[in-house]
C-alpha cells in the first residue's frame, strides 16, 4: 500500500523544500529529477552516459531517457511505501509516459502568482565562499550585502536575476501549465496556496496527503 504523488508548480514555488520535508515526515521517497539526472551522470551509469551526450551538446534530455530514469528509481525498495515526484513530469507527453509505468495517486499544484515568484527568486543572495543563503527581504543578512558567517560579499546567481526569472516563468507556462488541465480532467489535482508561510503550506499538504487513499 502506498501513495504516489506529484508536486507540480513553477520554479520558486517551494516544491523541492516541501517534498524533502514531507517525505521525511511521512516516510515517502523524495525524487527530484534534477538530482536524479546529476547522480546518474556522476555515477557514469548507462542512462547517465546516454543523458550526458545530450547535455554536452546543450540539448534537453529526451523524454524517453528521463522516463526510464524515473522508472528505474521508483522501482527501488525505498519507493515501495510511496514517493513524491518533484520536477517531473514537465509536459503532457511525460505525464502520459509516467502513467504507463505507474498509477499517480494525487497531484498537488503549487499555486502562486508570477509577481510573487519574481520577488521571491530575484531577492535570493548567496555567499560564494561558504555557501550560506539569504533573501534581501525574507532572510536578510545583518549587514546588507555581507555574509553573516564569513564576511564575504553576497552575490546574486544569474538565474535569479529578474529578467531570467521572468523568462523561466514564461517557459514554464508554455511547457508545463498544460499539465494542470490534464490532471484536473483526470480528477486527481489539488491546488495548494504556495504563497502562504512555509509551515502553513506544509501543514496543509500533510493533511491533504493523509486523505489520499493508499493503493
Describe the protein in words.
With 215 residues, the protein is of the alpha/beta class. The chain has a domain at 3-112 and 176-209: P-loop containing nucleotide triphosphate hydrolases (Rossmann fold, 3-Layer(aba) Sandwich). It has helices spanning 15-26, 33-42, 46-56, 63-74, 92-101, 114-122, 162-175, 178-185, 198-209; strands spanning 3-8, 29-32, 82-86, 106-111, 124-126, 133-135, 189-193. The strands form two sheets. Strands 2-3-1-4-7 form a five-stranded parallel beta sheet, with helices on both faces. It has a two-stranded antiparallel sheet with strand order 5-6. A hairpin with a 6-residue loop joins strand 5 and strand 6. Helix 1 (15-26) packs across helix 9, helix 2 packs across helix 3 and helix 4 (63-74) runs parallel beside helix 5. The mean pLDDT is 92.
Task: Name the descriptors.
single chain; 215 residues; alpha/beta; Rossmann fold; 5-stranded parallel β-sheet; two-stranded antiparallel ribbon; 7 strands; globular
Give a nutshell description of this structure:
Helix content is 46%, strand content 15%. The mean pLDDT is 92.
> Which regions have little confidence, pLDDT < 50, spanning 5+ residues?
none
Q: CATH H-level name of the domain at 3-112 and 176-209... which superfamily?
A: P-loop containing nucleotide triphosphate hydrolases
**Strand order, largest beta sheet:** 2-3-1-4-7
Distance between the termini: 5 Å
Under CATH, the topology of the domain at 3-112 and 176-209 can be stated as Rossmann fold
Number of extended strands:
7
**DSSP helix fraction:** 40-55%
**Rg result:** 18 Å
**Helix/strand/pairing category:** alpha/beta
* Tally of individual helices: 9
CATH C-level name of the domain at 3-112 and 176-209: Alpha Beta
Task: Summarize model confidence as the mean pLDDT.
Answer: 92
Note the main sheet: 5 strands, parallel
Question: Could you tell me the strand content as a percent range?
Answer: 5-15%
What is the second-level CATH architecture of the domain at 3-112 and 176-209?
A: 3-Layer(aba) Sandwich
Order of helices and strands: EHEHHHEHEHEEHHEH
Amino acid at each position: 500500500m502506498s501513495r504516489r504523488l506529484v508536486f507540480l508548480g513553477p520554479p520558486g514555488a517551494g516544491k523541492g523544500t516541501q517534498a524533502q520535508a514531507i517525505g521525511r515526515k511521512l516516510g515517502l521517497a523524495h525524487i527530484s529529477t534534477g538530482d536524479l539526472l546529476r547522480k546518474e551522470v556522476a555515477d557514469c551509469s548507462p542512462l547517465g552516459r546516454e543523458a550526458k551526450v545530450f547535455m554536452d551538446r546543450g540539448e534537453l534530455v529526451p523524454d524517453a531517457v528521463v522516463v526510464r530514469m524515473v522508472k528505474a528509481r521508483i522501482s527501488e525498495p525505498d519507493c515501495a511505501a510511496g514517493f513524491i515526484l518533484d520536477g517531473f513530469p514537465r509536459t503532457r507527453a511525460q505525464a502520459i509516459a509516467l502513467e504507463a509505468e505507474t498509477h499517480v495517486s494525487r497531484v498537488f499544484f503549487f499555486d502562486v502568482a508570477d509577481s510573487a515568484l519574481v520577488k521571491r527568486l530575484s531577492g535570493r543572495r548567496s555567499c560564494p565562499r561558504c555557501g550560506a543563503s539569504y533573501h534581501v527581504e525574507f532572510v536578510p543578512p545583518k549587514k546588507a550585502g555581507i555574509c553573516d558567517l564569513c564576511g564575504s560579499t553576497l552575490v546574486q546567481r544569474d538565474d535569479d536575476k529578474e529578467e531570467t526569472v521572468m523568462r523561466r516563468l514564461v517557459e514554464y507556462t508554455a511547457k508545463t501549465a498544460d499539465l494542470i488541465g490534464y490532471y484536473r480532467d483526470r480528477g486527481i489535482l489539488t491546488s495548494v496556496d504556495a504563497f502562504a508561510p512555509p509551515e502553513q503550506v506544509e501543514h496543509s499538504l500533510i493533511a491533504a496527503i493523509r486523505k489520499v487513499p493508499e493503493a
